[in-house]
Amino acid sequence: MSIVQPDQPPVALGELAAGDQEQLSAAEAGYAAAAWAPNTLRGYRADWAEFTTWCTQHGRSSLPADPAAITGYLTQLATAGAKVGTISRRLSAIKFAHRMHDLPDPTLNARVVTVWEGIRRQLATPPDQSTPLHPPVLFDVLDSCPTTWSTKRTIANPETDLGGLRDRALLLVGFVAALRRSELADLNVDELADHELGLVASLRHSKTNQHGNLELVVLPFGTNPAHCPVTALRTWLSQAGITEGPVFRGITRGNRVRPGRLHPESINTIVQRAVARAGLDPTGYSAHSHRAGFVTHAHLRGASDRAIMHQTRHRSPASVGTYVRVESAWVNNAATTLGI
Predict the structure, then answer these.
(1) Could you read off the pLDDT of 35-82 as tens digits, one per residue?
(2) Residue by residue, what is the 3-state secondary structure of the chain?
(3) Which of 11, 119, 179, 337 is 20 to 30 A removed from 279 (C-alpha atoms)?
């Protein structure tokens, strides 16, 4: 295979090398197109484009990539203040591009490995973590969700605020089910099943489940109707007239439900706006605050790591441990019994 020169356009990520593409049947091509999640490919394309641009500017080949080009690129990123996670993602894109063209992985070169390890050691910082959203703060945020909507024409007969109903349902379902923002956005009505104890959500895909293995997440009835995720969800679906398709959707300025599902990034905005309505600083809160809040609150109430993992679907207790925040550091700690 000829080397791609720096002034040539970057390869199309997610596609097999040209020689292999000719051998794919229509059915094979269909399966090949479904090999990676769209978000994954979008991220790889963006990162690969940046690397190829850097190579062009510095007179380097991007495919196959010279180890010196990779270390020079990594060094520039690190010097410019890029985070370790960002640099790691760029390395993954480089590795992916070479893999798709049946080329040796240049990120395994000793020079690349050594420079990358040095960057990791020098720039390592605690991972950015969303502020956990759990009771009693969660209840304050729920109470701040609007219940009525009106304009000058409807002020005498205000309507139910559909945005407020949606936000309540999203906040409670996100917290109790410990769902990621992508899982909230992807949730469909036909994935919800009634149970004598509440609802069961059948998730077909998630960040750690790319092959469609069915994952069950429970939504139990709450003891307080005002804080019950099942009640909030059913109320939202009923008032919004949603009987199929996406569960969580956008709301127009005219208080009407949009047909399409929410974008995952929009869920960040919804959470931050809800927190701000409660008079709190939204900085640090995000869609991940649901999941962090569930783990933190469940841990504080004595749930075992295994029980928490049953709901969050984490693969290891170590992953759960990263969510145990400052709040739990005081629990059963001998430092509080010194009597000084």
Answers:
(1) 777 778 888 899 999 999 999 999 998 999 999 999 999 999 999 988
(2) CCCECCCCCCCCCCCCCHHHHCCCCHHHHHHHHCCCCHHHHHHHHHHHHHHHHHHHHCCCCEECECHHHHHHHHHHHHHCCCCHHHHHHHHHHHHHHHHHCCCCCHHHCHHHHHHHHHHHHHHCCCCCCCCCCCCCHHHHHHHCCCCEECCCCCCCCCEECHHHHHHHHHHHHHHHCCCCHHHHHHCEHHHEEEECCEEEEEECCECCECCCCCEEEEEECCCCHHHCHHHHHHHHHHHHCCCCCECCEEECCCCCEEEEECCHHHHHHHHHHHHHHCCCCCCCCCCCHHHHHHHHHHHHCCCCHHHHHHHHCCCCHHHHHCCCCHHHHHCCCHHHHCCC
(3) 179
Is pLDDT at 3 greater than 50 in this prediction?
Answer: no
Instruction: Give the pLDDT mean for 182-201.
Output: 92
Superfamily of domain 137-327: Intergrase catalytic core (1.10.443.10)
pTM of the model: 0.67
State the CATH class of domain 18-123.
mainly alpha
